[in-house]
Fold this protein.
Amino acid sequence: MFDPSRVNAFAQRETPFYYYDMDLLERTLAAARKSADTLGFHVHYALKANFNDRVLGSIRDTGFGADCVSGNEVRRAIEAGFDPDKIVFAGVGKSDKEITYALSEDIFAFNVESIQELEVIDALAGALEKRARVALRINPNVDAHTHQYITTGLDENKFGIAHWELAEAMETLRGCPHIELVGIHFHVGSQITDLNVFKSLCVKANELNNWFDERGIRLKVLNVGGGLGVDYYEPDKQSIPDFHAYFSVFDEFLERKPGQEVHFELGRALVSQCGSLVSRVLYVKNGIKKNFLIIDAGMTELMRPALYQAYHRIENLTADTGTYGDDTKHYDVVGPICESSDCFGKEVLLPLTRRGDLIAIRTAGAYGEVMASRYNLREEIRYVYSDQP
Ligand code: LLP
């Protein structure tokens, strides 16, 4: 929801830009923190969702750790002031250089995705005379019921170590003097709205936790990843996800042995709703079959619709200030990029729209700014914070 004075202020600005509602971000983080603390859970924020400086600063101040997927994300987290002892490093393809860097910073743990990676980390840690803490990322073969491109926990996905490889992984670990096994890690997918998926994950995690326990290995950490979805259709209805319901599933169904910690890697749920992409209508093109709104933001600023056919709510902010009549029309809202997939929404019902109107594409705080590109030599992405004059 944007009040008219905000829209008037936007009108003076060059578009497109990301707008971050810092108050909503703070309230979202506080809600997540409170629910997690109540149950004694630990949250590592998945930097990949958004590593904008101010956003990251608020998350650091909340006291969360960081979940990183590249050496540069580890570096960004450290520069932003996250405690290395609360940084985990995941990813199927960590390079030697990235591993060495993370070792030198003494991060909390590597989430290891293959047996070969164990051997590489052991050798690199040995060369630095360090001991690497690792959690084995196990592919639990749980269907996340989400878009195929953001499903990660099925046997056909490239992520993690398969459950049938575990005995071999343990055998390998016995020969790795520079590795300390601290836990197991899972992540089954993203934008998960059916909490039953997490229940299924708990069942698998319990089986695996027992598997280790039966072999005399008491794991310190059960890391269940991220994935909690948000409401892209009605961003103002529940602008803060129900963290309590989410964490409660794990509290109820994940069996912890004495001393075991539960870790989470939330990304989207923490930052999606605080971000909107604000753009201007460049042209209104009434075709024979279609009416097009050509706006000045494209897939270069927000790639999700082009890449995943993702839905984002689109609003005409100028019309919503109340100066326009009640007439509406269906529009295909498209960007200026030379690709047919550069489309934010088809047949979107909007107030009668004019050149110069401001458009908001909502729920864009996660996987928006971070996935921007310079394709077509587009301008560097701009952003505005709600507490800026
Ligand atoms: N942990 C791991 C190991 C992950 O791979 C991910 C996301 C997360 C945590 C955070 O998941 P979240 O809580 O944000 O769902 N670009 C896609 C999403 C890719 C997600 C990749 N992994 C999108 O725009 O929908």
User: Anything to note?
Assistant: Residues 22-270 form a domain with the TIM Barrel fold (CATH 3.20.20.10). The chain has two domains: 4-17+274-385, 22-270.
